[in-house]
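User: For my dataset I need records formatted as: sequence, then structure tokens, nothing else. Please produce one.
Assistant:
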Amino acid sequence: MTLLEYAEKISPIPLMGWQKEFLRKYEDAKQNGKELIFIPGRNIGRTVMVDIINQFYGTGMKDVYCQGTKKNGIPCKRYLGKVSGKAELLCPICKTVNVVENGEIIIKEKRKV
């Protein structure tokens, strides 16, 4: 999941064009080890951008992959998203409920289809 996809998913308001471009450039700079200097105007949603970036790259965020197995016994390992804190995520492939608590992933149940 890219920073832009994450931001569009959790942003309380629709992102403007400059915000989308900023997030793309920020992620590119971070991956290439470069520094990005950007000075936005006043009162145009810069605190929202800072909060989203801190949540995405924060220490509390954990990538979650499905711990269930498919019908033929092969581990699923589908990417389910980034999570901080507690969450229950249903895998759309194997229908396993993955529970995240204290940074650990536990299988709760396998739903019948």
